[in-house]
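User: Can you predict the 3D structure for this chain?
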Amino acid sequence: MVSPANSNDRVEDNKATVRRMLERLSAGDVAGFTDALAPDYVRHCQAMPPELQEIRGREAMHQWLVSNQATFPDYHEEVECLFGEGEFVAWRSRGIGTQHGALGPFPPTHKRMDLVIIGMHRFEAGRIVETWTSWDNLAALTQLGLLPGM
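Assistant: Here is the predicted structure, written as structure tokens:
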């Protein structure tokens, strides 16, 4: 049985891992982000297009992040809060970047987006095995000038 003190230490370690991952990603170090993922990692998201709603495997996530970095080379994500309990760490962050590459069928707009991202990671043995994340796709497309404002 895991003692409450050990459980609290594990939660704090997991929260530190999430913070470190986002710091590395913000510095352009995709491998520094994906190193914390389990090989059979799964990300769930209500993203557009539908093929991004589930990404399976650490390598597939790495490749998606590399392509996203090419689209938003100045992308950085700022953690606003982290909560942990048991094997889960939930976060709220802001993802900020300028679209300098193609975004699916959309050419570069050279406009900036600033989005709230909310998600939760599930850890096993110190690695992230599953993530659920969400952001406002319509807000992103509107900020990038790809949809008319309301």
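The chain has one domain: 4-143. The chain has a mean pLDDT of 93.
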